[in-house]
Amino acid sequence: MDKIMTTPEPTAERIKEYFKEGKRFDERGGLLDFRKIIIEKNVSKKAEGSVRVKIGNTEVLVGVKLDVSAPYPDSLNKGNLMVTAEMLPLSSPRFESGPPGFDAIELGRVTDRGIRESGFIDLEKLCIKEGEKVWTVFIDIYSINDDGNLMDASTIGAIAALKMAKIPKYDEEKGKVLFGELSDENVPLTNHLPIAISVHKIGNSLIVDPTREEEELSECRVTLTNYGGIISSLQKSNSRALEIHEMKRIFEISEEVSKKILKEIESRLK
Fold this sequence. Notes:
Layout: H1 12-20, E1 37-41, E2 49-55, E3 58-69, E4 80-87, H2 102-118, E5 127-129, E6 133-145, H3 150-164, E7 166-171, E8 176-186, E9 195-202, E10 205-208, H4 212-215, E11 220-227, E12 230-237, H5 244-268
Parallel strand pairs: 4-6
Antiparallel strand pairs: 1-2, 2-3, 3-6, 5-6, 7-8, 9-10, 9-11, 11-12
């Protein structure tokens, strides 16, 4: 019987040694390179905007839905935004069925804050009648396969789905949303296109877009949402402390890499 040759899984020590040389095990050009990004549009007929995003083998589905509801008490003339994430067990043995775990809650909150604080959605234009009726934008994120960096894949998916989403028709006399019938009006967006980049510290190296094996070695993750050089949100995860010079470098990496990812997103949505 012929022997089947398999490639051994990289050990933590070997991964860190590769990082010192500026290399990755998946043969990427360097520590600040993303894997190939694929964006598939209009994957759901039930959503007002939807995409499937793949970064390497990591895959997520993101859908945008709109409905009419009452405004929040502190923003009577603005639409609402709600982001939820579901880590499906099929995507990783780490995720279980049931109520959202910490990872899902954090992913939803980071995506929400990055979009909201950047002003990407012009919420005032989603007001139908001040103090009574506004459009609520729901962003739903589903993990399909987790091979590392679900955070950035999800935020890319949310931005892409929003750029495609159209507002449903609304019958003001009946006070009813005509689901399935879309108006010619897109969700009102500003030019502040926010891009979230997660930078991981592993040993003495700073990397972006980790694979699952690399992500498991992460001692600290900082996710910055950047638009035009302006940081709209920042989230630090894991307990490892960072030096001032490391944090400065993370800001530089965020700005540098977000420009590249922005060009990729725009080219794939044309």
